[in-house]
Design brief:
The chain is about 35% helix and about 20% strand. The chain is of the alpha+beta class and about 350 residues long. The chain binds manganese (II) ion.
Amino acid sequence: MEKRLEKFEAALAATDCDGVLVTNLTNIYYLTGFSGTEATVFISDKRRIFVTDPRYTLIAKDVVEGFDIVESRDALPEIAKIIAEDELTKIGFDGEVVSYNVFKTLEGIFADYELVPMTNFIENLRMIKDESEIATIRRACQISDQAFLDVLDFIKPGQTSELDVMNFLDARMRQLGATGASFDFIIASGYRSAMPHGVASDKIIQPGETLTMDFGCYYNHYVSDMTRTVHIGQTTDEEREIYDIVLRANKALIEAVKPGMSRIDFDRVPRQVINNAGYGAAFTHGIGHGIGLDIHEIPYFGHSEEPIEVGMVLTDEPGIYLDGKYGVRIEDDLVVTETGCEVLTLAPKELIVL
Ligand SMILES: [Mn+2]
């Protein structure tokens, strides 16, 4: 944590802000290890303040190191009072997540300062994971891998609904050590699998259908996010071909990823495989996103020449969606290494027919 704070302070020194007000709880967890629901943090080159209300004071004193811990139900005026003599001029705030109403409040309380929105300031630090973060995400992925293997035995074509699958995966991952689902699972069978974000419904999974399962868990605050598509009963030649194209796209990216690759190319390499097969128009979303404390976090791809860097954890999730028929998506989580990448989701992805 202290290392993380030092990185934060080095990044702050490179801006023209004297201090930063942090209100986003995920960012506060990242900087302090505190995971309660009420806290405000202020960091300048003069001090580090952690404010929480009386419900959390004891936990904060136990967990949070390197900060002055202040108990208050009204954090912002309290911080303004503490820093009044510090001769600060510009104060940054996590502009990405502060609502207009909160901003008006900030303007009132910090009227003597210039307020500067610091978009993605902490998110940029979060983008590069350290060894312990990677180990945690690796474990979250192992839990998802195991739940996927187990759900294959659970599914009874003609009897099991999409909601049954969702609830099985959720419960199984909790049994394996997860603290919860990392998002609303997409469990989509048959014609519904053509909807890239078809959340689970009460539809029964029938023989002859494809079944797309996009799911993940929280493990020690970090997420996993994986997708597997399986076939039920029998498959057609076209279904096998579509599956093979998506799998080749997914693998092409795993082969190609290395530090220094541009974000545009991260999207382009797998998309090219699908384009070349003639299904470019049916791949209707971006190739992936960063994961970590949030299920969707920077970087995103497709528009930026900025490089992929060692320590990023990224999803690789090409798909083909045939409206009215079915869809296929395969998603892995990758961590970028010095020489390429390590695939964290290791559940089988050769075509499975149940
Ligand atoms: Mn994803």
